[in-house]
Amino acid sequence: MKPRPTDRSLPMALLRARETVMTHFRPLLAAHHVTEQQWRVLRVLGESGPLDATQLAVRCCILRPSMTLILRTLAARKLVSRKRHARDGRRLMLEATPRAMALIAKVTPESNSIYSSIEASFGRDRLSQLLDILEVLGKMRPKQQR
Fold this sequence. Notes:
Number of helices: 6
Structural class: mainly alpha
Strand order of the largest sheet: 1-3-2
Low-confidence stretches: none
Mean pLDDT: 93
Strand content: 5-15%
Distance between the termini: 21 Å
CATH topology of the domain at 24-113: Arc Repressor Mutant, subunit A
């Protein structure tokens, strides 16, 4: 049995689509000296409020070892603060600082403009459908292997 051709492979198609979309956003992030992964962390923390490292890693789709370095960098730049959990002193809670919130506010207008451009090219309804489909796909769990 032959593998699927890469032009009809779901993982490859998702990667190609991601790369295409990110080519629009990378210059914006680079202009603000933020990596894609750092931006994900800042956006999730800015949107959600404090999270522990495990919750943050899951929501950002970043492996824990990589998250450690990202958080260290963001903390050194005073974009993320760390505090002990109020009820469980063993847990560290991570939070976007006011400086991070200011950065998000500064980047948001151009980011929204990029989204609008993508939406105009791809179609508002198609983009909405795609996001709905990807949300469902992202919640699928693999069947247990025997």
